[in-house]
UniProtKB/TrEMBL annotation:
Protein name: Glycoside hydrolase family 39 protein
Originating species: Talaromyces pinophilus
Record has Signal as a keyword: yes
Family: Belongs to the glycosyl hydrolase 5 (cellulase A) family.
Keywords of the record: Glycosidase, Hydrolase, Signal
A GO MF term: hydrolase activity, hydrolyzing O-glycosyl compounds
GO BP annotation list: carbohydrate metabolic process
Extent of the signal sequence: 1-17
Length: 464
């Protein structure tokens, strides 16, 4: 229903005017009287992106962005490191990759989501005869795998900050090429085995589905019904936003539908893969940051690289010489890209307290805003990979102690990509675009956001 209303608005505005006309339907709004608490830079997590050699990427690159979540389990390590289904040596080599990434995460205080389906060997590259847990009703191999895994977690003191994703994207054949019923039984067994071994010291996460928990999603219906009946409710509800569409307010409403249908408790939400590759640019990242912060969900950047490059580049935030022309898994010389600068600003500059925002009704422009103890308010905006002109409205300026009318002097920063190479090109800082005075009244100001490319994000700052 919402989308048909939206479609009508878009048709009307498109036929009446070009993109430059100011129109309420495409205005993102910041409410400066709605304090939503301290920033925890919830979007600063990574799927893979960490080399298997400790300290290969210098520590400052992780700490400057407030890296706080890692998710890995040895995916795509070649023979002899293809995981449990290829034998014990291949398990051990894959485990070594996971353990190394765990150490990097913990060195920076990040939590670690262990992808045990990857350690098993179902990393998406498994062949069509690869076994799955519980094939033909036989759980022996999976039970032995878990016994070995528990022992390795303990002997390597890996329980701190550890979260287990019971299986990745079990709603798609790339990772679970079996019936959902077999998956659900695996879920129940695995959940209780982890709890019996570690209690709640090790958290459990799921279902990490490719699909959003929308009320129309029958796979989610079966999952929610099962975990309610089996009393195997994870500590984090996780799903992915990797289709290039959707938004988190509607996805959260969908989750709420299933929670109330099956009387399930609220738990933290973790979007443990977000953004498609084309969205991994400053505009897209700013958009995702705003979406995640609004619903208080943790988010981990998706990863669109393969092979050892999957275990490098911090999920496309850093680069190095010959990154694509002559890739070496162990080469160093790292530098930052344009997208990195958004996460650095988000972590280092957007401090103080957050305030509530709403995205434009076409869901293209979104905003994340903070009010700093340095007496500067900051609004980071991003358009979801489209050119045009949107509006940004800043409301309740009087809540910041500003007069209800006057001139608001706004300092603008641009966050570009390197035009020669979007993901691998070096960018060392945002661009100072200067100051502009906007006349305002009624405690509110509205000004345009000119999105003349599909990649640049903007930050607007003003003194209070
Ligand atoms: C802005 O936030 C305040 C405080 O939460 C709230 O009372 C007010 O209704 C909000 N304004 C709008 C337009 O939603
Ligand atoms: C398919 O993968 C399994 C391990 O999952 C392996 O034992 C088997 O040899 C592979 N088959 C082929 C044809 O490569
Ligand atoms: C949950 O499911 C697992 C796997 O089928 C089963 O072993 C366990 O007994 C079930 N627990 C409850 C409480 O239903
Ligand atoms: C962000 O904060 C740091 C540390 O205070 C400061 O050096 C830097 O100039 C700020 N960046 C911007 C874009 O304001
Ligand atoms: C304040 O902002 C949060 C986050 O965007 C939102 O959920 C809440 O409804 C807002 N409150 C008011 C009163 O507008």
């Amino acid at each position: 229903m919402r989308s048909s209303v939206l479609a009508q608005c878009l048709m009307v505005t498109t036929s009446l005017a070009g993109r430059v006309l100011k129109r309420d339907s495409v205005t993102a709004v910041v409410n400066f009287s709605n304090n939503t608490g301290a920033p925890q830079h919830l979007a600063s997590g990574l799927l893979y992106g960490v080399p298997d050699t400790l300290d290969q990427i210098p520590s400052k690159f992780y700490s400057e962005i407030g890296y706080n979540y890692e998710r890995a389990g040895g995916a795509q390590i070649p023979a002899p490191g293809r995981g449990w289904i290829w034998g014990l040596t291949e398990y051990e080599n894959r485990f070594a990759s996971a353990l190394s990434n765990y150490k990097t995460a913990r060195e920076h205080g990040a939590n670690f989501i262990f992808l045990i389906h990857d350690l098993w060997g179902a990393d998406g590259s498994q062949n069509s005869s690869a076994p799955y847990p519980g094939d033909n009703g036989d759980w022996t191999s999976w039970d032995n795998y878990l016994t070995r895994l528990f022992s390795d977690i303990k002997s390597n003191s890996m329980t701190g900050g550890l979260i287990i994703d019971i299986w990745n994207e079990p709603d798609g054949s790339a990772f679970w090429n079996r019936e959902q019923s077999q998956y659900l039984e695996m879920w129940g067994r695995t959940y209780y085995k982890f709890r019996a071994e570690f209690g709640t010291e090790v958290l459990l996460s799921g279902p990490a589905s490719a699909g959003e928990p929308l009320a129309t999603n029958t796979w989610w219906k079966a999952w929610a019904s099962y975990v309610a009946g089996n009393d195997s409710i994870p500590d984090q509800y996780a799903w992915h936003m990797e289709g290039g569409g959707g938004d988190l307010l509607s996805a959260q409403a969908g989750l709420q539908h299933w929670l109330s249908t099956y009387d399930l408790p609220s738990k933290p939400i973790n979007i443990n893969e977000y953004a498609i590759f084309s969205e991994q640019v400053p505009a897209g990242s700013a958009w995702w940051i705003a979406q995640l912060e609004r619903i208080n969900a943790h988010g981990l950047r998706g990863n669109w690289l393969s092979g050892y490059a999957l275990h490098d580049f911090m999920a496309s935030l850093v680069s190095k010489p010959d990154a694509t022309s002559d890739y070496s898994a162990t080469a160093t010389g790292y530098f930052t890209n344009g997208d990195y600068q958004v996460y650095k600003y988000y972590y280092q500059n957007m401090t103080g307290y957050r305030v509530g925002t709403t995205p434009s009704t076409d869901l293209k422009l979104d905003a994340y805003a903070t009010v700093g103890t340095d007496r500067y308010a900051r609004v980071l905006v991003g358009v979801r990979i489209e050119e045009g002109t949107w509006e940004l409205q800043l409301n309740d300026l009087t809540a910041l102690g500003l007069p209800s009318s006057g001139t608001l002097n706004v300092h603008t920063w641009g966050f570009p990509v390197n035009s020669a190479d979007t993901h691998y090109g070096e960018v060392d800082a945002p661009k100072d675009l200067g100051w502009y005075g906007h006349a305002y009244s009624g405690g509110t100001v509205t000004f345009p956001v000119y999105q003349v490319d599909t990649t640049t994000a903007y930050a607007f700052e003003f003194a209070i």
